[in-house]
């Protein structure tokens, strides 16, 4: 029944069970254990947590992006330097993820431009379309045909073969 301020119009029937107020000389054990838990466990833990939060609020650390130091490329690693190989592989994977996000952002910008411009998308979104074309070509040149399991070594070999083909094509022109 909804709350109503007109008590005379909607009188609430009296409750059938009377409220029992037991007053005994023996305290309730539940209340005793709740009080002991509150003072022995809860209060110290709450105090320590609030103290830590006060200390942390003094030294605010704003985390935006994790910055990794650049490591040598795989071509700069010495033979048998497995730690360098591992770091170069991790750096290559991070670079690949960044390049994927760049392509995705440019693609989203082109989609937003097309949505915004409507029928005039071809002339008003030409810069975004050209930028997407350049970015996807650069991504395809570097990471294309590597597949999901591509790594830094296969990418380096792909770039080496592409450079050799470009060199041969330049010599054939002369």
From TrEMBL:
Its main location: mitochondrion. Pfam families: NDUFB10. InterPro entries: NADH_UbQ_OxRdtase_su10, NDUFB10. GO terms for cellular component: mitochondrial inner membrane; respiratory chain complex I. The keyword Iron does not apply. The keyword Disulfide bond does not apply. Keywords: Electron transport, Membrane, Mitochondrion, Mitochondrion inner membrane, Respiratory chain, Transport. PANTHER family: NADH DEHYDROGENASE [UBIQUINONE] 1 BETA SUBCOMPLEX SUBUNIT 10, NADH-UBIQUINONE OXIDOREDUCTASE PDSW SUBUNIT. Accessory subunit that is involved in the functional assembly of the mitochondrial respiratory chain complex I. Complex I has an NADH dehydrogenase activity with ubiquinone as an immediate electron acceptor and mediates the transfer of electrons from NADH to the respiratory chain. Belongs to the complex I NDUFB10 subunit family. This is NADH dehydrogenase [ubiquinone] 1 beta subcomplex subunit 10. It comes from Formicarius rufipectus.
């Amino acid at each position: 029944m909804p709350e109503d301020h007109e008590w005379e119009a909607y009188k609430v029937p009296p409750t059938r069970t009377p409220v029992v107020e037991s007053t005994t000389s023996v305290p309730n054990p539940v209340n005793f254990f709740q009080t002991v838990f509150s003072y022995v466990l809860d209060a110290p833990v709450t105090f320590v947590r609030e103290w830590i939060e006060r200390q942390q609020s003094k030294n605010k650390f704003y985390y935006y992006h994790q910055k990794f130091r650049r490591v040598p490329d795989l071509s700069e690693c010495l033979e048998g330097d497995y730690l360098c190989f591992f770091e170069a592989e991790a750096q290559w994977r991070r670079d690949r993820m960044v390049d994927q996000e760049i392509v995705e952002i440019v693609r989203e910008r082109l989609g937003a431009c097309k949505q915004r411009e409507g029928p005039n998308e071809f002339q008003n979104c030409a810069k975004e379309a050209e930028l997407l074309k350049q970015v996807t070509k650069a991504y395809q040149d570097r990471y294309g045909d590597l597949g999901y399991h591509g790594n830094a070594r296969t990418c380096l070999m792909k770039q080496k073969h592409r450079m050799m083909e470009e060199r041969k094509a330049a010599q054939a022109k002369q």
